[in-house]
Amino acid sequence: MSKSYVIGVDYGSDSVRSVLVDASCGAEIASSVFYYPRWKRGEFCNAARSQFRQHPLDYIEGLEATVKDCLQKSGIQNIGELVKAISVDTTGSTPVAVNEAGVPLALLPEFKDNPNAMFILWKDHTAVKEAKEINRYTQGNAVNYLKYVGGIYSSEWFWAKLLHTVRVDPQVRQATFSWVEHCDYIPFLLTGGKQASAIKRSVCAAGHKSLWAAEFAGLPPNDFFAGIDPLLDGFVDRLFSQTYTSDMPAGKLCPEWAERLGLSTSVVVGVGAFDCHMGAVGGQIEPYYLSKVMGTSTCDMLVAPKEELADVLVKGICGQVDGSIIPGMIGMEAGQSAFGDAYAWLKQLLLWPAYNLLPELEDLSDTVRENILTAMEEKLLLRLSEKAAALPLTVDSELAVDWLNGRRTPDADQSLKAAIMGLQLGTDAPAVFRAIAEATCFGAKAIVERFVDQGIPIKGLIGLGGVAKKSPFIMQMMANVMNMPIRIHKSEQTCALGAAMFAATAAGLYDRVEDAMQAMGQGFECTYEPQQEWLSIYAERYEKYKALGAFVEHRVSMPVTV
Ligand SMILES: Nc1ncnc2c1ncn2[C@@H]1O[C@H](COP(=O)(O)OP(=O)(O)O)[C@@H](O)[C@H]1O
Ligand SMILES: O=C(CO)[C@@H](O)[C@@H](O)COP(=O)(O)O
Question: Which residues form the Carbohydrate kinase FGGY N-terminal domain (predicted)?
């Protein structure tokens, strides 16, 4: 019998990665990465205003390039006929305004350069005011529609972004028929959808970001949204009432995309989901093991059997949704808005002279300048990690709070800012890096504490994503700060692999995604164990981190160590 292959596509914050996988065992046959060109040039973004927009063409070009590249790299002659399914995960909440035909407005000539007509990336925080209004309005409402999203609505999410967009841009408002998550748009595109009302919405995105819940028989009613702002009046009726888990097909590849990708029209396209949800599956999540997808941000994923969870509602996380990770279980999501992005911020800061002064050195050729810059970009975090690991640590060493992009969990507040204290003339770059790295680990610990305080035991940690693979320094620190072992998954592309597992299930190659996970999972490569000698100093410094965080948040007085 001929082999079956599946494709998993993972849309990250900076790039899209596709993997071609043997559906029987999960072996990766080929992979391909595409960095979004417009995004890389910084187009349509304004970091100072927390505006981060992505053009749909970056996604579409990347889809075609990576899938074709995987097929070509496979070297398998009739691979186009052997691929059975494709599934997609994306960041989220990353929604876009579409017209009645489901076309993102930025794909229309009149909106092609308008950031409000593009995908609003998860980390865009331009809707802080709107999120606050949603929270205020819900407090006075008879029904608590925020009960399944941790009790606080975030500016990273669907409704806050829609409200902000229709407020600031009357032309976009006029042209907007519906509002669609990236993870729901791509399957719609691949299946040749022609009507926005027919877009299949994933329960993952709908439950965690759009306030959809079976208990509410769908989305909250129109009155609720119209009460927040009359500009939202009527949207609910044009959105959706039904949702789907990602083990289900969204449809089959349409002729146009079958031809563009070199695949057949019998290829099943699975229902999409968020990157970290599929990543948790790719990384072989187990009940009560916190699967930490550590990249630009972190998403901390947990599954619990429905019957065991009973009526527990965890406060201050990004939601608990039936079937959002594994169909049949409650999927919970928490996270940090800046994790790898916190190190990337410091890297940008330290490379300022390289970006700004190197071009002034006329004696250097362009090639030499570029080589210097590339070497610095590639090596900086690695060298900082080596040096930071060798520094002595005391209770008074430099200390930071990690809210460089606001606080996602516990208790979302994207308007919060980061802080660093304890600087002195002897403070060097590795010391600042260590403080920031430590702060991201402390932020991670605060999430574990929240779950435990709310009655959800955490049995262990699973580490996935770019930072888990690239930084032994931060992973060892994480194990020490948490006083818990952290198992690092073998797969380089857990999110894309998870998407491939869902593709195989949607195509009927497996009955349940748990079976796909069992057969296709790649296992773990190593475990970082907590080191006894570091536990007490981190425990002490964690208390200081909480005090500094409280000071930043409430401007209360700080305890002083003499
Ligand atoms: N050596 C390193 N140590 C710590 N962080 C790193 C290192 N190299 C890269 N990173 C961080 O990894 C992050 C990217 O993670 P990745 O999982 O590849 O991306 P994404 O979040 O888009 O899925 C960046 O924010 C970057 O700062
Ligand atoms: O917030 C979510 C999902 O809810 C993520 O998509 C978002 O943090 C982006 O993740 P990355 O850090 O780019 O992997």
Answer: 5-282
Give the 3-state secondary structure of residue 8: strand
Angle between helices 429-453 and 532-554 (to 10 degrees): 80
pLDDT in tens, 99-141: 999 999 999 999 999 999 999 999 999 999 999 999 999 999 9
Ligand 2-lining residues (CB < 6 angstroms): 12-13, 91-92, 122, 274-276, 295-297, 299, 333, 335
pLDDT of the residue at 562? 41
Query: Residues 474, 500: one domain?
Result: no
Same domain for 420 and 504: no
| Nearest ligand, measured from the Cα of 335 | 2
Q: Is the dihedral of CA 205, 416, 428, 539 positive or negative?
A: negative
- Tell me which residue of 109, 211, 193, 226 sits closest to 150, measured CA to CA: 211
pLDDT band at 555 (very low <50, low <70, confident <90, very high): confident
Number of domains in the chain: 2
Alpha-carbon distance of 90 to 8, in angstroms, equals: 11
C-alpha span between 178 and 496 (Å, rounded): 28
Domain extent for 425: 340-490+525-554
pTM (whole model) above 0.90: yes
Residue type, 542: Y
Interface predicted TM-score (ipTM) over 0.90 = yes
Length of the chain, please?
A: 562
Question: What does the alpha-carbon distance between residue 506 and residue 81 come to, in Å, rounded to a whole number?
Answer: 17
Backbone torsions φ then ψ of 125, nearest 5 degrees: -115, 35
